[in-house]
Amino acid sequence: MPLDLADKKLLNRLQIGLPLVKRPWDSFEDELQLQYEDIRKRLERLQQEGIIRRIGGVFNPSALGYRGCLYAMEVDESRFAHTAAVVNRFKGVTHNYRRRNRLNMWFTLSSRFEEDRTAILSEIGEAAGHTGIYAFPTKRVFKLRVFLNMEEQGADGERSGSASKPLLHPATDVNWEHRDWELIRELQGSLPLSELPFDEISARIGCEPEEVLERLQRLHSAGALKRIAAVLMHRQAGYTANGLFVAEVPEEVLEKAGTRLAGHTEVSHCYERQAYPEWPYNLYAMIHGTDERIVRSVAEEFALKEGIGKYELLFSTAELKKTSFTI
């Protein structure tokens, strides 16, 4: 079923996030001029159609004591399927993609303990035939916010309009209590689509609704909970092309270049990462578009304006795994 304007407005608003209040849908009714029952039915349909992947908590693993890193490796085709299965088996792997490049498998891994990470990478390396695994830790974040603009997405591939500002919080050392972890686990699933969703969650974990809201505010203030929002399926939402842009940028201009790249509405993630002699790229960005032409034009125009001579654009050709962070 084609999306109407109300669907698109609802998807945009829900990507920004739900307010952490007792009746969160009331603000949606006022802003979108939709009644709650209409909102609920639309969301149920959009989930059934696969446009909404999930509605729930979006967390910052580092603020919860986890360390994440991006990895890439060159996997021979004869071992690719087996290696992907091994990589995907680990709960700490949330994303795994086949990309059009010599380094053809890219995955993220989060863990609380270094010995766990070492053991997991050893098993993955063995499955891949002991190929080298590149680690690309984040050195600096310029943008970390996925927002697929559904309203201004032109049918002809026209670029979307205003950029969504990233909501970034520094990682903090907080001693989270058992009840916090219970709440986090609940929000890593699907939020109830009732008028009082946090009341339902409070009943599940055995506490008062006011305590749930207080704990959510604390999680958010500490940077552990980024937002409670809708996560969309890119392709089903019309964004059928996504490319990993990697560029070699001189250190003295990297901050300004990264900030300008992060300002593009098509860019959801933008980082400074570890470079290697044989892989000299230090600026990374995920660029999304309704087709590859859009993604290429963003990369090419940026490289031209910044005077970047060495860069690559790695298109995703298969989504091998994509899940939300879970504890």
From TrEMBL:
UniProt keyword list: Lyase
Enzyme class, spelled out: lyase
Residues of the Siroheme decarboxylase AsnC-like ligand binding domain: 64-143, 236-321
InterPro entries in the record: AsnC_trans_reg2 (IPR040523), HTH-Siroheme_Decarb (IPR050684), NirdL-like_HTH (IPR053953), WH-like_DNA-bd_sf (IPR036388)
Gene3D superfamilies, per database record: 3.30.70.3460, Winged helix-like DNA-binding domain superfamily/Winged helix DNA-binding domain (1.10.10.10)
Entry EC no(s): 4.1.1.111
Catalytic activity: siroheme + 2 H(+) = 12,18-didecarboxysiroheme + 2 CO2
Domain Siroheme decarboxylase NirL-like HTH: 7-53, 182-224
Superkingdom of origin: Bacteria
Family listed: Belongs to the Ahb/Nir family.
Protein name: siroheme decarboxylase
